[in-house]
């Protein structure tokens, strides 16, 4: 059997499955980029217009947001989804807008929309191409993030089409060097002085400098820590990883500096004209002693996606900071939307990578599909927090053949679940009933409540009951009738005082109906709910 990682494969597999703790990637604290802590509110082009967008449509929609009062209600982001750009990057390798439909360019459009008091967002994919097969950002993350910041954009939706998985293999390391950027002088750190974690092992090879290398760092199995990195000045340093060439397959190395994730290093399939090779990245070190940990954290597709989205998130923060320094203006933070479709469980890692994450495939204006999306997202209440939200996708309110009650239920449920409120209809032609739904102040206040807790489903059945704690000590309750006929329901609100998550205060006798009506006998409420409809109340 081939020793793919230069260890006995049978011994290596036996160690992997004996139940010993596996190394996990460090530096995955909640993502902070200075954006709003409550869910995004805005509009996006995809649901209605798909690949048929141009600068006039986008600007006219921005005007409509102002003129209808939607902007005053909180819908301030105008987001260009796929098909905003040309298939050709410019001579510098940068994105450029679709040369005919956006002939004035994105910066000009951003300026005009900013003058309305609104913000602009844009789209790409965590792949080699977007979902419409246009230039995307995988492998070009920092360059594209710099373009986003330079153009003054404040929202970035990052899809998952044409994705390529991060390799789960790690290289064979025999040393690292550290050099102050621009100095040309480097300090060697052989693996003999490093700390090994997990299943990382030193292996002998007399042909290598130092006579040994470290293996056993594939797929989260182990890591190597150099905790003796000493520098005189804080700043940027070139980290060079010295490897023994082995195997004609791609490899990856995660880099953690002083407990925080830094940019990883990709290693291509290697030709073997020489025994060794050097690969580099730039890290930020503190004056004095530093620690650098290396290992491959990619255990599966979920971990691969997390690595990639975290990398883009760091690029966006860096690009926004650099642009502020160049312009002499305040940082324009970029709200980061992860659109991975929920297959790789982004609720488990999304808060360390972005501000919101799709929990499902794309929404459509079909009632049964909206209910399916709801049923997936409602289970994920424990993963939402200020600045980090489950995203059941854009709103279809006003689209398709949804009834008034279905539109109301759709909007109310998204508000109860602390979801981003991204309109997907044609704002220029919005009807009064639809406008009244999406500007319902009480529902928006529930969604935008600063406590930022997603509602928990406290009863499941033909009528679901959701409860959402609010910052002022009150509790929002939603009765959702999933049946295709009108139904009655009753519930004792006092039960919510015993739920550790909802933690409702003792019922004080005050009930206010936000959607629909009901009756109460003390803390016991009875409601009548239309088919496919909701009743929403707030009690203290």
Automatic annotation (TrEMBL):
InterPro entries: Aldolase_TIM, GH, Glyco_hydro_27, Glyco_hydro_27/36_CS, Glyco_hydro_b. Its EC number is 3.2.1.22. CDD domains: GH27 (cd14792). PROSITE patterns: ALPHA_GALACTOSIDASE (PS00512). It comes from the Bacteria. One of its GO terms (molecular function) is alpha-galactosidase activity. One of its GO terms (biological process) is carbohydrate metabolic process. It catalyses: Hydrolysis of terminal, non-reducing alpha-D-galactose residues in alpha-D-galactosides, including galactose oligosaccharides, galactomannans and galactolipids. It holds the Pfam family Melibiase_2. Keywords: Disulfide bond, Glycosidase, Hydrolase. Belongs to the glycosyl hydrolase 27 family. This is Alpha-galactosidase. It comes from Candidatus Limadaptatus stercoripullorum.
């Amino acid at each position: 059997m081939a020793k793919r990682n230069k260890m006995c494969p049978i011994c290596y597999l036996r160690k992997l499955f004996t139940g010993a703790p596996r190394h996990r990637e460090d530096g995955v604290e909640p993502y902070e980029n200075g954006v709003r802590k409550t869910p995004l509110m805005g509009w996006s082009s995809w649901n209605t217009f798909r690949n048929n967008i141009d600068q006039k449509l986008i600007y006219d929609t921005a005007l409509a947001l102002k003129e209808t009062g939607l902007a005053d209600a909180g819908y301030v982001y105008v987001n260009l989804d796929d098909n905003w750009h040309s298939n050709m990057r410019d001579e510098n390798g940068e994105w450029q807008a679709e040369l005919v439909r956006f002939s004035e360019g994105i910066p000009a459009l951003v300026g005009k929309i900013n003058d309305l008091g609104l913000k602009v967002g844009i789209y790409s994919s965590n792949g080699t191409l977007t979902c419409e097969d246009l230039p995307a950002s995988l492998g070009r993350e920092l360059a594209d993030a710099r373009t986003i910041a330079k153009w003054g954009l404040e929202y970035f939706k990052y899809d998952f089409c044409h994705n390529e998985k991060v390799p789960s293999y790690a290289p064979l390391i025999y040393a690292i060097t550290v050099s102050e950027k621009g100095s040309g002088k480097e300090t060697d750190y052989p693996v003999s002085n490093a700390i090994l974690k997990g299943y990382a092992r030193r292996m002998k090879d007399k042909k290598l400098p130092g006579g040994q290398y470290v293996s056993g760092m594939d797929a989260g199995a182990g890591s190597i820590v150099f905790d003796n990195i000493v520098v005189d000045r804080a700043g940027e340093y070139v980290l060079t990883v010295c490897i023994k060439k082995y195997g004609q397959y791609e490899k990856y190395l995660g880099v953690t500096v002083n407990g925080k994730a830094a940019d990883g290093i990709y290693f291509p399939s290697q030709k073997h004209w020489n025994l060794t090779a050097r690969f580099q990245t730039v890290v930020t070190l503190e004056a004095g002693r530093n620690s650098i940990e290396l290992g491959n954290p990619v255990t599966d597709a979920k971990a691969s996606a997390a690595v990639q989205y975290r990398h883009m998130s760091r690029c966006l923060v860096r690009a926004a900071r650099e642009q502020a320094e160049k312009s002499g203006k305040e940082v324009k933070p970029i709200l980061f939307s992860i659109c991975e479709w929920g297959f790789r469980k982004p609720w488990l890692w999304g808060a360390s990578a972005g501000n919101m994450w799709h929990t499902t495939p794309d929404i459509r204006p079909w009632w049964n599909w909206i209910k399916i999306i709801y049923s997936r997202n409602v289970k994920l209440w424990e993963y939402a927090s200020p600045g980090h939200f489950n995203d059941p996708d854009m709103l279809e309110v006003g689209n398709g053949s949804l009834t008034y009650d279905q539109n109301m239920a759709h909007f109310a449920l998204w508000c109860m679940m602390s979801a981003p409120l991204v309109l997907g209809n044609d704002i220029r032609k919005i009807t009064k009933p639809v406008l009244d739904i999406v500007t319902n102040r009480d529902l928006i206040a529930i969604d935008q409540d600063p406590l930022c807790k997603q509602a928990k489903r406290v009863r499941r059945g033909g009528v679901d009951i959701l409860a959402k704690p609010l910052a002022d000590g009150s509790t929002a309750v939603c009765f959702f009738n999933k049946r295709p006929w009108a139904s009655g329901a009753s519930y004792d609100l006092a039960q919510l005082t015993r739920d550790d998550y909802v933690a409702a205060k003792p019922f004080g006798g005050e009930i206010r109906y936000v959607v629909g009506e009901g009756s109460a006998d003390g803390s016991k409420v009875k409601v009548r709910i239309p088919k496919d409809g909701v009743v929403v109340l707030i009690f203290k």
